[in-house]
Amino acid sequence: MDIEFVRSRFIKHFDGQTGNIYFSPGRINLIGEHTDYNGGFVFPGAIDKGIMAEVRPNGTDTIMCYSIDMKDRVEFKVNDPDGPRTTWARFIYGMVQEFKQLGVQVGGFNIAFAGDVPLGAGMSSSAAMESCFGCALNDLFANNEISKWDIVLAGQATEHKYIGVNCGIMDQFASVFGQEGKLMRLDCRSREFEYFPFEPKDHTLVLINSKVKHELVGSPYNDRRRSCENVVSALAEHFPGKHFETLRDAEPDELLAVENEVSTEDYRRAHFVLGEKERVLAVCDALNHGDYETVGRMMYETHEGLSKEYEVSCEELDYLNQLAREAGVTGSRIMGGGFGGCTINLVSNDVYDDFISTAIAKFKSRYGHAPEVYPVVISAGSHKVC
Ligand code: GLA
């Protein structure tokens, strides 16, 4: 992101003064999809694309917002009970409300922001917004006394309460805690995590964006979560002596025992989640041994599961996955919530060029538009730029 670009717009659209600049990244996730809200493991990292905001307190009780990308201006009062209708401005409103809940005296401010993380591509542009605004509010109104975890949770609460997506914590976590060159294995039940240096030998991670826009608001994302909760309720009823908080607490034989007590659809979804928990652990282990074949195999298994059992794929993503297999790519799968967006591909360097050119050409001839290709650069999490 270009600091001068954001600054020039901030100056132009407000009173000519400058503020502080903050940046928060989007994320990739090597493996561990739809496991976060099930108390399982995820394996994300922050990327070099994200949201940059310039912010300056204005001494009033009004928040004046300018979205550089949308060329749109919205204003609202700090204590407005309903908040703005415009979706992008609700991310700011939500974070302000959550900071107030944390006891922070938020005052009015001017904010202009822009992003280079593609929208709807499954790279968490919304978590990047939340953590960027959280980083700014923390610095300008809370003396940086709000913990990173509280910023993560404020971002998640913003999604739940002000946007309508019942997401887990992976995206906000990755955006806030990311470190250059490191992936993070997070246990979403205990919130313990570990940094994993990620320097794959002779392999490259690359995202391929189908450009099918995924929209989690009002999407079947919340339904998937409900399916998992249905199975948890069935487990609790079937095994009254055991406490089931999430699917993380379920063993495969326990799931099998309730197969006839839940719908086929819910069963298949829960089956995917249990398998995915094991796959994340297997991938961490394989990475420690430099065993990319196993990492790749697990990624393909995840894709199959997301496509057939969890049903969050689409034709274009399945085709990108098929093209990866045909080109001998080590591992490939849908990344993020699904319903569109990107595949993440672990590609051995000797097939890289061929894979990319063939995938672009074949995808374009089938769907009429070329997919976009983003080599992954694992980068730092949210921070003040200047
Ligand atoms: C979206 C959500 C995350 C997570 C992923 C799927 O990105 O925001 O919390 O559930 O989907 O792994």
From TrEMBL:
GO molecular function (one): metal ion binding
Domain of life according to the entry: Bacteria
GO cellular component: cytosol
Residues annotated as domain GHMP kinase C-terminal: 286-360
UniProt EC number: 2.7.1.6
Domain Galactokinase N-terminal stretches: 9-57
Keyword hit for Cytoplasm: yes
Keyword annotations from UniProtKB, A to Z: ATP-binding, Carbohydrate metabolism, Cytoplasm, Galactose metabolism, Kinase, Magnesium, Metal-binding, Nucleotide-binding, Transferase
Keyword Zinc-finger: no
Enzyme class: transferase
GO biological process, one term: galactose metabolic process
Start and end residues of each GHMP kinase N-terminal domain: 91-179
Xref: InterPro entries: Galactokinase, Galactokinase_CS, GalKase_N, GHMP_kinase_C_dom, GHMP_kinase_C_sf, GHMP_kinase_N_dom, GHMP_knse_ATP-bd_CS, Mevalonate/galactokinase
Protein family (similarity comment): Belongs to the GHMP kinase family. GalK subfamily.
Protein known as: Galactokinase
Organism: Prevotella micans F0438
